[in-house]
Amino acid sequence: MKDLQACTASPFGSCTVRTLAVTAGIVFLYIAYKLVHPEQFIITAIITLAVWLSRRFLDRQSFRSLGLNDWNPDDLVNGFVALVIPLVIVSLVQWLTGWATLKGWGMDAAGRTYLPSEMLGGLFSAFVIAGLTAWREELLFRGYLLDNLQRGTGWLWGIILSSIFFGFLHIILTPNAFSLTLAQQISIVTLSSLAGLVL
């Protein structure tokens, strides 16, 4: 009751800000859902629910204890930088080894050009997919798996094992992974495991 009174005391109080943030989040998710493949949201919801149920009923811990209780704006900036650097490195490695080619900006492989609005829609979709993927991976590997592994094996082995699981998941989920050469498969697992260690 005290929170409700404090919340309604000021028109610009924390409840107003929270309500606006939640509303903006719902609108953002609705637009994103219309632009992005729905299965991305379904997979994210299933993993989130599975982790929540496991945390609540198997571990008898709160969901927030997975590191979701403290939020610092600096973490957002640091996380973004930590995301961009490995993506640039992986892209450079792929380009230097010939696994990827850059043919131009604003066109597809067939040479069709796209309007700036279409490119922005594609960038928005990529941003949403990356955000959903990051949420799933962080919640599952850096949240649930790491927390439970480090309880049984210690901090260092928890990080190493969760990073190896992270790496193998990426080879399993890579389309046509088993048609790649052994060197390519090893590099995917190694880079993903290293990303798991660093990030």
Write the SSE topology:
Blueprint: H1 2-9, H2 14-35, H3 38-58, H4 73-97, H5 116-153, H6 155-173, H7 182-198
The domain tally reads: 2
Gyration radius over CA = 20 Å
**Number of discrete helical segments:** 7
Low-confidence stretches: 1-12
State the end-to-end CA separation: 41 Å
Name the helicity range.
over 70%
Name the beta content range.
under 5%
Quick take:
With 199 residues, this protein is mostly helical. It has two domains: 1-35; 36-70 and 103-198, no CATH class.
Fold and architecture overview:
This protein is mostly helical and 199 residues long. It folds into 2 domains: 1-35; 36-70 and 103-198, no CATH class. It has helices at 2-9, 14-35, 38-58, 73-97, 116-153, 155-173, 182-198. The longest helix has 38 residues, at 116-153.
List keywords for this structure.
199 residues, mainly alpha, 7 helices, disordered N terminus
